[in-house]
Amino acid sequence: MTLTAKNVSVSYDESVLDDVSIGVESGQVLTIVGPSGTGKTTLLRLLAMFRRPDSGTVVWDGDDVWGLSEAERLTIRRRVSMVFQEPSLFNASVSQNVMYGNRVRQSWNERIRRRVRDFLGDQSLSESAHTALETVGLLDKQDQNALSLSGGEAQRVAFARALAVNPEFMLLDEPSSNLDPRNTAVIEDAILRAKDRGVGVVVATHDMNQAERISDQVGFIYEGELVETGPPAQVFSNPNDRRTKRFVDGELMYEVDEEETSPQMTPTSSLE
Ligand SMILES: Nc1ncnc2c1ncn2[C@@H]1O[C@H](COP(=O)(O)OP(=O)(O)OP(=O)(O)O)[C@@H](O)[C@H]1O
Asked: What is the pLDDT of residues 27-69, one digit of tens each?
């Protein structure tokens, strides 16, 4: 099974992604690395089928998803879980958050929350939710209110929630930014365990060390262009492109004006 962006381009006021082609297979971890504001989140959103690219498409196991009917695309989309940079948990127990899945992913309001809470009621932990919570080491917190968790624990719950729906693919946007080393290690271990179970995982990160630890393949993206792809050892130790080398050397953590000699210290932030 493969999930692939094929020649995708996206523009808002200016070009955000330019003719990018990259994909992931089941049981593989692909990491998209690059400085802030360079198009990583946008690429994940395309792979999640939240947005249609201006040109190009997303291919699911040979099918052009934007050539399918909406119902067919929705069916496929349900097999892909995305975890956003900021976990949005609702005011209920950890187990309810995990069982709630990603049925209503983005735009839920108080009424929907209440309905979900009523619906879940007294249900005990489902098998997949149990496995997911175990994977992130939070079984002992299943009855705790999710809003009382630490930032790291909340990220782990968001990951468990995405895993509990038994997705074919998981798309993770900066899954451990701002997390301490222990929580980061738990998330990375959970990613590798999901991969071992056959899930294809795409991780967007600006952390090269993380990419090196977890990736089968790395794609370096800069100013909307996919500059280089390959196994991490090759991309990080023996890059082909001057821009990759500068990123590896720590010179491109921020968007750089090519005319400037030093980086502009004005990182752009994700719109998530
Ligand atoms: N809906 C939108 N409307 C206008 N501009 C957008 C929109 N979404 C993204 N952009 C712009 O596209 C560019 C790339 O954003 P994106 O979030 O994909 O980058 P990123 O690499 O994920 O950054 P970060 O690492 O900071 O999250 C940014 O300049 C951003 O402002």
From this structure: 999 999 999 899 999 999 999 999 999 999 999 999 999 999 9
Instruction: Report the CATH fold assignment for 1-79+167-272.
Output: Rossmann fold (3.40.50)
Nearest residue (CA) to ligand 1, atom 29: 37
Could you state, in order of their start, the residue ranges of all structural domains in the chain? 1-79+167-272, 89-166
Does 16 contact ligand 1 (Cβ within 6 A)?
Answer: yes
CA 42 – ligand 1 centroid, Å: 6
Q: What is the ipTM of this complex?
A: 0.94
Type of residue found at 160: A
CB proximity list for 2: less than 8 A, separation 6 or greater: 23, 24, 25, 26, 59, 60, 61, 62, 200
265 CB near ligand 1 (under 6 Å): no
- Backbone φ and ψ for 49, nearest 5 degrees, come out as 65, 25
State in Å: Cα 271 to ligand 1 middle: 6
Which tens digits make up the pLDDT trace of 3-15? 999 999 999 999 9
pTM: 0.86
Q: How far is the CA of 39 from the centre of ligand 1 (A)?
A: 6
